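#struct-pred
JK: can someone run the complex with magnesium ion? inputs below
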Amino acid sequence: MSVRALIFDVDGTLAETEELHRIAFNRAFAEAGIPWKWDRELYAELLKVTGGRERIEAYTRRTGAQEIDAPALHRRKTELYNEMMVPGAVELRPGIEDLLRRARDAGLDMAIATTTRRSNVVGLMRATLGEAALGWFRAIRTGEDTSRKKPDPEVFQLVLSDLGHGPDECLIFEDSENGLRAAQAVKVPVVITPSIYTGEDDFSGADYIFKNLDEPFSILKFVPEFVFHDVSPDVRDLLFHG
Ligand code: XBP
Ligand code: MG
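RT: done, structure tokens with the ligand placed:
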């Protein structure tokens, strides 16, 4: 395999943004006078449902609450999230900026495949690498482009079609089991870096699992059946700085 494109999930992979999402949800609930407060333990559970609106709808069903306007609440949550997304609010995860720059220098295509909203991707880039960094990505597909969210593979299918590369020419970076299952469905090799909320997820079948992407010592484990030498030197160089 020769890698021609790197495809990145956003939340939990590029940055630990789920804490900001959680705070934004709680602020939107408080503003609307809804007596819900999602603590970290509950939020970890609720993350099994991808998509913020879908998460509100699932929680509404679970609590039996009446008169919850999930689309309006979610719109407000997105506004609050973007207000909070200022420089310094979150950092990119260790190794991400370096990996993006090295991949760019190496002439690889890069893409984003996320279930979150486009404005949140723009906000994250603006607050970290600067808005111009959005231009580093040849394809950006978000929850607004799909009718089904991860673990459904739709967002990855769109990105693969945008890029025009075969699955064996790409590498997907994910932090969650939902993301891994979506990636596996399109038969693209997957690098997992578990995030603060996904450490207990089932990552069986992942090609690599690293703590972070900053240095070789961050390897959590190699999946036993994975034969490292089957992978071309370009992947090795990217992940291990040569
Ligand atoms: C991230 C999500 C998103 C965010 C909230 O999944 O599930 O729903 O929690 O974003 P992934 P929105 O990292 O797999 O893309 O509120 O904008 O949906
Ligand atoms: Mg994620």
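RT: quick notes.
Strands lie at 5-8, 109-113, 139-141, 170-174, 190-192, 208-210, 219-222.
DSSP finds nine helices and seven strands in the chain.
JK: thanks, will look after standup
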